[in-house]
Design a protein that fits this description.
Order of helices and strands: EEEHEEEEHEHEEH
Helix content: 25-40%
Number of helices: 4
Shape: globular
Oligomer: single chain
Radius of gyration: 16 Å
């Protein structure tokens, strides 16, 4: 894993590229003092059909082994849970990760990955995103973004201390 130097972005935030990254190497970047990490669009299985226990409702009695594909869901967890899940995130689908951290409970219906440009920046400001991690596939280049340089620097220090 190779980390570039942080750079100020035109949107006023700060970002850094992390090359050759895996989710388990990136999730330690989250601030352990902030309660919420959202992982958007998690895909636990590779493309294709799979026989898995799945529910069609929110009731446990709805769980049955079904043939499914394209499973995607969002998760809200603590930074500690994200770190513990790191090895599993590495092994899921293509090892991609789109995750962000906020200090207060995240909105129930906001998907930052579905927004672009100013709309995404405004949404991130509005809910107080402190760190965003975007890794397209395991082993590729991740972008870490933060509105504040010192937050990004602290995130990188947590990553380095876990190498």
């Amino acid at each position: 894993m190779h980390v570039d130097s942080p750079a100020e972005r035109p949107d006023g935030g700060w970002s850094v590229a992390v090359h050759g990254a895996r989710p388990s190497e990136l999730v330690p970047a989250f601030d352990p003092e902030l309660r919420y990490v959202v992982i958007e669009g998690h895909s636990p299985v590779t493309p294709g059909w799979h026989r898995l226990p799945m529910a069609l409702t929110d009731k446990n009695e709805s769980i049955r082994t079904r043939t499914v594909r394209r499973i995607r869901f969002d998760m809200c967890m603590s930074p500690q849970e994200a770190i513990q899940a790191g090895p599993e995130l590495d092994d899921s689908d293509q090892g991609w990760l789109y995750a962000w951290q906020v200090p207060t409970e995240p909105p129930r219906d906001l998907a930052l990955s579905h927004r672009e440009g100013r709309s995404r920046r405004a949404a991130m400001e509005g809910i107080g995103v402190t760190l965003l991690i975007d890794l397209p596939h395991r082993g590729e280049t991740a972008i870490l973004w933060s509105p504040r340089r010192h937050v990004l620097d602290a995130s990188l220090e947590r990553i380095r201390s876990n190498e």
